Amino acid sequence: MTGEALRVADLPGRGRALLAAREILEGEVILSEPPILLYPSSLASLLSYCSACFRSLPPPPHAPCPSCRAAAFCSPACASASHPRLVCAALSSGLAAAPEAHQEPLLFLLSAYSLQESSLRALLSLSSAPQGPSPSQQQDAASLHAMVASLAPPHILPPGFSPDLTAALLSKDRTNSFSIMEPYRPDVPLELRKTRAYAVYHRASLLNHDCLPNACHFDYVDRPGPGNADIVVRALHGISEGKEVCISYFAANWRYADRQRRLLEDYGFQCECERCQIESKWKFDDDDDNDGGDGDDTMEEEHAKEDVGDGVDEGMGQEEGSDDDGDDDFPHAFFFVRYMCDREDCYGMLAPLPPLPNGDLSHVFECNACGQFKKEEDVDEPDAGDSSMAN
């Protein structure tokens, strides 16, 4: 396929969104983008990952930052690119002594205030949570602003540095950042998988949430070549022109109550998609064991947009081989068998590999969390009414 795959549109009740600009094939790479902002998840990340691209550091000796000596780089190219100047200055002036709870937002603010003016404007153009900051969040913003001012020399702070700008930046981080995860390892339990860094992407941040997404994103950290922190978004199935392209902000097999709680608390909206309308009528036992429950934070996409309304891409509710007449207990079971990774303790999504150069579909699926490959013929259709993957 040729031509731009996505276009930006303002949708009523949903804010800015990305729509299919043409017919999109299953597995097609519809977006590949470097971050406009990349920052470490913690000071501990500086010990294990390149401070420029967050690739795993090779065995010592490393190339240390000549200014702060606290950061290291994986290659001469990354050493030349360096890391955010305000982070560098703060590492030399007491950032490590800041309370642990404040280190992550401080790393974000110091990195954001180090951006070139055009990138800072792009960051500020992204959406914030619709409900606005609470009084406690406003107090935290004022405290963090004072910390930034104490850690960074005044002459390198950007024009416009102010408490209001700091509060505005913090609101962008909460709703637009993606986690750059440590690659999956079968010997590392899910709850111990670490976040290396957080990234904000100008276009990918416009992707809205749906509980039955038609796309998912991949990170390819530590693979050869440049773009270690680039995001790659692939279509789960064919998407017709004009349809909205959506991802899930967390593991797709979370149950209804957990999804709604997280979306409301972290992103400020209640989801009314087709799946949620069906599952809102179900009865749940509060003591039910739910593999995709609220404790599964590692698959969270870590960003959100404006309020999300109902409706999903046509075809999501009724795939070939499913019987979606609205009467089954779980008419979307086919989606989970086809697109949910079945590897224990993974909870990733299976997306088809990109179409072949001649346009033929690949019929091979790749998990965006553990990286396993699965042939299409190995996907079995669920029994009628099978809802075990969502409850």
From TrEMBL:
Lineage: superkingdom: Eukaryota
The protein, known as: Uncharacterized protein
Lineage: Eukaryota, Viridiplantae, Streptophyta, Embryophyta, Tracheophyta
